[in-house]
Amino acid sequence: MPFDPSYHGQSVSRVKSLARQMAPPSATNFTAEVVPQAPEDPLFGLMRAYRADQDPNKVDLGIGAYRDDNAKPWVLPVVKKADETLRNDPELNHEYAPIAGIASFTSKAAELILGGADSPAIREKRVTSVQTISGTGAVHLGALFLARFYTGSKKVYLSDPTWANHNQIFSNVGIPIAKYPYFSKETSGLDFEGMKAALHGAPEGSIVLLHACAHNPTGVDPTLEQWKEIAELLRVKKHFPFFDCAYQGFASGDLMKDNAAVRYFVEQGFELVIAQSFAKNFGLYGERAGCFHVVTSPASDAETTIARIASQLAILQRSEISNPPLYGARIASIVLNDPKLFAEWEENLRTMSGRIITMRKALRAKLEELGTPGTWNHITDQIGMFSFTGLTEPQVLKIRSDFHIYMTKNGRISMAGLNTKNVEYVAKAIDKIVREG
User: Fold this and answer.
1) Collapsing DSSP states into helix, strand and coil, what is residue 41?
2) Whole-angstrom Cα distance, residue 286 to residue 55?
3) One of 244, 258, 366, 376 is an active-site residue; which one?
4) Are the beta carbons of 131 and 329 closer than 8 angstroms?
5) How far apart are CA 280 and CA 250, in angstroms?
6) Residue 4 is among the residues annotated as catalytic for this protein
7) Among residues 280, 345, 366, 376, which one is catalytic?
8) Which keywords annotate this record (predicted)?
9) How far apart are CA 38 and CA 170, in angstroms?
10) What proportion of the chain, given as a percentage, has pLDDT over 70?
11) CA torsion angle for 311, 315, 316, 321 (degrees, to 10)?
């Protein structure tokens, strides 16, 4: 404010009075009508309730993070070794990573999801990769890229159900959402015919989000033969595949088995995108290491096309996070580029997936031993971290209040929350709740 000579010589109280009169209004621009109170994220609300629970028998089956048989987080032994290598590197610094990320990480990440350096996409130089803020950031970058540049039907088809964050991410970039049937409540398996019918009826050129393996939240995956039918349907309808891969190697313990769907689509010449997370399979949940990959169609100008795509992805990345974080990507890069450490990582993956498979068998066996009403083969038929139990929302709330067992309202449980010390307790609780109807 310019100097006003009229202020000169006035009393302090007079100046304060004038200042109060000139102060900005106290009313906010962000009233409750404009910015309503948002509901708490259901999963994080569940975590908060679990932590506040003082019952000694409480069981956390909600959070999607691996736990060992003592219900403790497990730092992979291979991650500890990579961390030691990183800390002892005399050349280590904390300068910015390139906008697209650490090349030694993104190149190996591409090989991991595409099936090796012999992948047609890699051989023909028609893939570009960008390091992201884990899988969430990869899905977001992919959604943003498609919102800006995809010329087909601007609608994304998500499985019903799907990871809840898919809905928010695509909505936030302005891509309308539709659903295709996926989980059959009657069989606790895949509603394959419903899925095919919905995708066949979708507008030509729609975006279709597919879970590469260990479908979240159902744990139900198509067989390879079913994947082939899905690919043919998408080819005929000219749909655009968007793969989300959060569990490669974690689902079955076999990296190549878990990327089979992606490899098949690439071999069939699809143009597609992939969101890839290293949270679960490296146990790097909080380090947010991920990748987004674009594979363009095999054509004479594929290299030029992929270069243009890479240039636009760099602009999007620059405007949002500028440069991706280093630590998690460096850890993964060390392991992915060292054959000995890579082999040890595969063994760590078999340990995690194997324990979860063992817990599936144990829970099913206990329920069948108790004669719990219903069929429970879906517990072992499903794969990966999660299982859809078939419990209803009232049953979920009842098991939480009576037994202090926490799971999401749709009856999804994290199999990693089960262990040899609590699986019988959980089975007996489910049995009692189901019998009560």
Assistant:
1) coil
2) 27
3) 244
4) yes
5) 7
6) no
7) 280
8) Transferase
9) 18
10) 94
11) 130
The catalytically annotated residue of 163, 227, 345, 376 is 163
Residue 345 is a catalytic residue: no
Q: What's the confidence (pLDDT) of residue 191? A: 95
280 an active-site residue? Answer: yes
- Chain-centroid distance, C-alpha 356: 18
Average pLDDT over residues 336-365: 95
Q: Which of 182, 165, 264 is nearest to 220 (CA)?
A: 182
pLDDT surpasses 50 at 100 = yes
pLDDT-based confidence at residue 50 (cuts at 50, 70, 90): confident
Q: Under 8 Å CB-to-CB from 234, ≥6 apart: which residues?
A: 199, 208, 241, 270
**Domains identified in the chain and CATH numbers:** 42-75+353-436 (3.90.1150.10), 96-337 (3.40.640.10)
DSSP classification of residue 187? T
Per-residue tokens: 263? 């490899």
CB–CB of 212/291 below 8 Å? Answer: no
The count of other CB atoms within 10 Å of the CB of residue 225 is 8
| Alpha-helix runs per DSSP H in 321-338 | 327-336
Backbone phi, psi, residue 401, to 5°: -70, -35
Q: In terms of C-beta density within 10 A (0-12 exposed, 13-18 middle, 19 or more buried), how is residue 310 classed?
A: middle
Confidence tier at 255 by pLDDT (50, 70, 90): very high
Please state, in angstroms and rounded to a whole number, the distance separating the CA atoms of residues 213 and 220.
Answer: 9
Q: Are 287 and 331 in contact (CB under 8 A)?
A: yes
Q: Are 292 and 136 in contact (CB under 8 A)?
A: no
Q: How confident is the model at residue 78 (pLDDT cuts 50, 70, 90)?
A: very high
pTM of the model: 0.88
